[in-house]
């Protein structure tokens, strides 16, 4: 039963995270603590790093390949 409640709370945390345009969980907890949002439960929101959109946004781009050959062409003056 505790696992079901935990899973339900995790889903609700994710729902509020998406609803607030992917704001971080620290700020959601601040809003909940001070009661600044109507309908937002005052429980502690948890981050399980399972948001695909946030994970994609934090990915770094692949680096460029290193140049192994140096061009020695002389440009006309
Ligand atoms: Zn997100």
The Cα radius of gyration reads: 23 Å
Strand count: 0
Mean pLDDT: 85
Sheet with the most strands, sense and barrel status: none
Work out the strand percent.
Answer: under 5%
Catalogue the unreliable spans.
none
SSE string, helix = H, strand = E? Answer: HHH
Bound molecules: zinc ion
Number of domains: 1
Number of helices: 3
Helix vs. strand class: mainly alpha
State the end-to-end distance: 80 Å
Helical fraction? 40-55%
Shape field = elongated
Q: What features would you describe in this structure?
A:
With 77 residues, the chain is mainly alpha-helical. Helix content is 45%, strand content 0%. The protein has 3 helices and no strands. Bound molecules: zinc ion (ZN). The site of zinc ion has 5 residues, from helix 3. Residues 17, 22, 51, 53-54 line the site of zinc ion.
């Amino acid at each position: 039963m505790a696992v079901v409640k935990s899973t339900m709370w995790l889903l609700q945390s994710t729902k509020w995270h998406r609803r607030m345009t992917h704001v971080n969980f620290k700020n959601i907890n601040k809003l909940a603590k001070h009661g600044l949002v109507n309908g937002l439960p005052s429980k502690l929101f948890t981050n399980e790093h399972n948001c695909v959109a946030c994970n994609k946004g934090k990915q770094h781009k692949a680096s460029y390949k290193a140049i192994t050959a140096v061009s020695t062409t002389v440009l006309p003056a």
